[in-house]
Amino acid sequence: MTLVGFKSFPLPLAQLALDAVLKCGQSFRWSTIAFPLSGDKELEDSSPSEQVEYRLCLRDRVVCLRQSFDTLYYRSIFPDPQPTSITLPIREAETLKWLKDYFQLDVDLISLYREWGMKDKVFAKFRDRFEGIRILRQDPWENLISFICSSNNNISRITKMVQNLCIHYSSPLISIKHPFLPSETLTYHPFPTPSVLSRSGVALHLRSLGFGYRAEFIQRTAKMLVDAHGIGCSDPSSPQEDPELWLQGLRGLSTADAREELLKFVGVGRKVADCILLMSLDKKEVIPVDTHVYQIAVKHYGMKGSYGGKTNMTPKLYEDINSRFLSIWGDYAGWAHSVLFTADLKFFSNYGSAISSTEKSPAATLHNKKNSPTSQSGSPVISPSARRKKRLHRQVDLVEPEFPTTPKSCKETTEHMNLVDRVKKRRRNV
Q1: pLDDT score of 291
Q2: CA nearest neighbour of 103 among 33, 20, 166
Q3: Is 43 exposed, middle or buried (0-12, 13-18, 19+ CB in 10 A)?
Q4: 3-class SS at 116?
Q5: What is the predicted pLDDT for the residue at 2?
Q6: Of 43, 180, 198, 419, which is most buried, counting CB atoms within 10 Å of its CB?
Q7: pLDDT of residue 349
Q8: Which key words are in the record (predicted)?
Q9: Architecture of domain 137-283
Q10: Nearest-CA neighbor of 57 among 31, 84, 19?
Q11: What is the structure's pLDDT at 53?
């Protein structure tokens, strides 16, 4: 199909599943906008790329994505003055280049899954259900501050903190019409710069916004960077400040040296440093070890410890877990771990499993109140209409969203199966 205003390129779901990758605790700024359910049968029969949109605000544009089972759709929305007919193709080419870099599309994820599945029987159990999960290559500055916010926190609360940073410390870049409700407008803010977050008074204000002790960590880390590298930009071709460029330069250091630099910042311990190394500094072998990863190691890989209980994460235990997984998964161990990490998250407990459960019993339906998720309103998930089922051989349905990152009128919904479920059913019906 063709979406007006969008460009596209072939990309199977097995290479990138946006509904998982953008919600598994890597990035906290993507907003997911789903079409509000209206009982419209025509809408129910529309393709997933018509029903949900993901958006991220960069410094100079908003990137919008939609996805079907075999295609990624993208477009850029720019603030005024708008690009000319001559410069627009250049700007669009920049967006495509950014997408390929951000999602690291040069890495063949299907081959990696196959390799990990052959080496590891545990991974093989999850590979089909959690396909398309890859590591993002994020901006190191944003990644650093986001994971300082992650200390003793959960994904939903981290998301709210990061959004508050943007709203309160970054001027709005652009206001855009809601993709599905034209009468509504959504405003987008880029991520704030180090010079802004380093100012006196930031920590006090962040505390008033609910950041707690992380408020001081954010302000002091930003100030350390500004004091060491200045507040300007020595490269006139770059929209980034010198502290941000310095952080990007850590990609060229060894894992050990880059980690040493990160550990100098306030609020950055070993686990936070490893998250930054993996998700923005190209250290693909690094495995950030937290409670989820420890429990995975104990439950599935024979590590000594108490499954479900509290554990003192000593440096030796941390290293032992890293070494164990690295010996199994190899150079891309950090990527492999993200699949099992996602599978261990409570939010993904039913991810990719709805189809198999309905096939076990003809009487089972998606609106089973006991075993199925509910919508945000508390009503049970609705099973597909008969008309939609007839069209599943041609299309997949709406992804299952997670965070209410948009205004109330366009809150994400869980009224439909996620995209992975639909693809699997489509394959079975072919």
Answers
A1: 87
A2: 20
A3: middle
A4: helix
A5: 64
A6: 419
A7: 87
A8: DNA damage, DNA repair, Glycosidase, Hydrolase, Lyase, Multifunctional enzyme, Nucleus
A9: Orthogonal Bundle (1.10)
A10: 31
A11: 95
CA distance 243 to 294: 34
The radius of gyration of the chain from alpha carbons, rounded to an integer in Å, stands at: 22
Of 209, 162, 155, 212, the C-alpha closest to 189 is 162
* Among the listed residues 237, 252, 341, 265, the one whose alpha carbon sits nearest the alpha carbon of residue 299: 341
CB 73 within 8 A of CB 49: yes
The H-or-E segment that residue 71 falls in is strand 71-77
* Cα separation, 158 vs 114, whole angstroms: 33
User: Which pLDDT score is estimated for 231?
Assistant: 85
**Token digits of residue 81:** 């003055």
Q: What is the mean pLDDT of each run of 10 residues along the chain (430 residues)?
A: 84 96 96 76 57 95 95 96 95 97 98 97 95 98 98 94 98 94 94 97 97 97 97 80 97 98 97 98 97 92 78 90 96 97 90 51 31 32 32 32 36 44 53
pLDDT reported for residue 168 = 98
- Which pLDDT does position 408 carry in this prediction? 38
Task: In whole angstroms, give the CA distance from residue 349 to residue 117.
Answer: 21
Identity at 40, one-letter amino acid code: D
- Answer yes or no: are the C-beta atoms of 196 and 209 closer than 8 Å: no
Going from the C-alpha of 144 to that of each of 194, 222, 243, 259, the distances in angstroms are 11, 10, 12, 12
| DSSP letter string, 144-201 | HHHHHHTTT--HHHHHHHHHHHHHHHS---EEEE-SS-TT-EEEE-PPPPHHHHTSTT
CB 122 within 8 A of CB 300: yes
- To the query of whether residue 160 is one of the catalytic residues in this protein, the response is no
pLDDT of res. 70: 93
> How many residues are present in the chain?
430
Which pLDDT belongs to residue 382? 29
Tokens of 421: 């479920």
Give me the pLDDT at residue 143, please. 98
Catalytic residue among 271, 304, 310, 424: 271
Dmax (CA) of the chain: 66
pLDDT of residue 309: 66
Best CA proximity match to 189, nearest among 219, 165, 161? 165
Residue closest to 49 by CA, chosen among 18, 95, 3:
3
Contact 265, 315 (CB under 8 A): no
Residue 343 makes CB contacts below 8 A (sequence gap 6+) with: 126, 129, 130, 351
* Structure tokens belonging to residue 414: 């869980």
As beta bridge partners, residue 177 has 185
DSSP-based three-state secondary structure for 349: coil
